[in-house]
């Protein structure tokens, strides 16, 4: 078999990109180096890591530094604008959500709940086996009766509200 490979010039397939087995060790080293009051940049940290015996490229160091220095924002987008809107409209806003509940017998129930944003209290909820457009509109009217300041309705992009079902 080895002779055939020599004759036809076949080479072993490469295993692909080598795994960075010491990623978390390097990550911790970079995190510690970023705490250095001298304010080291990516090039200096890269050279220090090479002196410590790590095999890593400058672009990988930059990517890890970006990941460490990036502020955590689980919601993405412009969170401050959303929080500003909610803080100004919280006394008039009510959020609604439709949840599916599986019973022990295999039936599916739908729970529609309304929560007042300002107080974070559930102001209305109801359960049905098959939500219809009329049923949801009736529940919205009942929630409006229970919360006199209700002007803004916040809902998610549930398929049930897309117009196909409700």
Automatic annotation (TrEMBL):
Name of the protein this chain belongs to: Transposase
- Which species is listed as the source? Leptospira ellisii
What is the taxonomic lineage of the source species?
Bacteria, Pseudomonadati, Spirochaetota, Spirochaetia, Leptospirales
